[in-house]
Amino acid sequence: MIESGLVYQLQRAVTEILETNLNHQVQPNEVLVNVTSKNFEGDYTIVIFPYVKALRMSPADIGERLGKALQEKLDYIVSFNLVKGFLNVEISDKEWQSQLNTIFKAKDTFGKHTSTGKKVMVEFSSPNTNKPLHLGHIRNILLGWSMSQILEEAGNEVVKTQIVNDRGIAVCKSMMAWSNYGNGETPTSSGIKGDHFVGKYYVIFNQKLKEEYTNWQQSADAKAVFEEKGKEGQSEVDFFNHYKNDYFNIHSTIGKETKEMLIKWEDNDKGVKDLWHKMNSWVYEGFEQTYKDLEVHFDKLYYESDTYLLGKEVVEQGLSSSLFYKEPDGSIWVDLEDVGLDKKLILRSDGTSVYITQDIGTAQMRHADFKMDSMVYVVGNEQDYHFKALFETLKKLGEPYASDLFHLSYGMVDLPTGKMKSREGTVVDADDLVKEVIDEARSAAKENGSLDDIPVNEQEEIFKRIGLAALKYFMIKINPKKRMTFDPKESVDMQGQTGPYIQNAYVRIASILRKASSLEKVDYSTYKSIEEAEKNLIIDILDYPYIILDSAKNYDPSSVANYAYNVAKDFHRFYHDVRILTAETDEAKAFRLTLIESVSAILERSMNLLGIQMPSRM
User: Fold this and answer.
1) Confidence band, pLDDT 50/70/90 cuts, at residue 352
2) Cys staple from 85: which of 59, 231, 254, 519, with CB 3.0 to 4.6 Å?
3) pTM value?
4) DSSP designation for 121
């Protein structure tokens, strides 16, 4: 698809001219071709500066020779001009028509890349089963889903997966709280969604632990601990603020019961395992509903309870082959200092696994299952070091996919009201946030009354699409590496850089096309003097395959989000400046209708990559 585009044609022609006429070799993708700045005449600009030193010629001489040769080689270049080290070329109206014809004929697949023959696995979401999905998970899920779609559009076979963190002390906390304080309550009896229900008991556990800790601080035992371990000049308040984890592990009664429950779980105690299965089943039902509401799904699920012991055998093999080493206490480590990291624990002295042990085994299991060529882990930036260590360890083990692993690291999400704390129950749940943005969309639509003439069920579907577009677009438009603040009200603004703004462009085009549906088809090949606004939209569409490659290469869905916004913005400008249904000639009308239908298709496809559906009306 790229090979048929104007930019590639210019790049290839420049390389051929440089080699034939000036005895200088470059690759087509090394030739810099940009859209010409509005301040200068021309459609595309070729940057001359990179060749000045090698050719020992002035930019003006190179540009003049290159411009004349391009005119001879490409019949659609009607003129050129030089501005310092920049060669601006103007494309003929006939070629713009030809490009639009190519786009329109393939509008449903335009820019989709041919198969790379590679299989990519994308891991995202990967929640804990002690609480519901929250605002942070939403960014993870939306980044993972959109990256999966973009990688597929770039020609890869993609497997979407997650590992559910369904075991461990945090899960046992919810189980212990329900056992002690639940009185047989269930999601059904309480009317609370399953994952919210279990999360409620995780909060209760921490409340009870806080009460216990507060009372303990008044005891003689606590005073003795402070006298023994407190630093000189440190207040009791400051000491006990930092002693929470030690208290849980050493002194807490509820902490002791919870750790005993975890040991029983690992020993396959029937009663504990039955409780674990029951409470996890409640959570899974809740998760599934949230994923359905967010319109995402997975190809394969992995569970930590199945994989947490994986990797031990690999570690032993690495030890026997001297890839790893053992400390006197029996713990096993990998030395990563040769790659700029440090020494990393990979198996505890008591033989229990750590996270990297599990991740090594899980990676091997996934490769055995799917034979993927590469893998993308969508995980918050607090785990940056972990993934550097994991990837380097897999390289030392000689894993065939180890050189093509990527951590899609992303910043945390805040709200205008501040940060979230799951232990205190102040987290914004994903379900509540989805409901809020849909309510915002409903409120905005009811204010202008534009949907009052259609059935309520159809209105609700439109509200949902607008609300989800607001949420998803706002989350994805920011570069993943940046921390962000999500504002529900701002996200539904029809005038800002939002999902609804882009949907509005699509809906406006659909309305025009409906009005034009009864018109007779007209040949627009004689249409002359193509407007600047028309060229801009064609150039936008021709950029699509490049945007896909760039986004896939950099693992950055925000490129596609910003591209869709720019196309919508150019359309709105076009709509304001150029007549369509009342065009000056039938040929101009036909050309513009073909153009906006192509714009509509590229907007729909771009937004679909972000997991956003277009509404029929707004």
Assistant:
1) confident
2) 59
3) 0.92
4) E
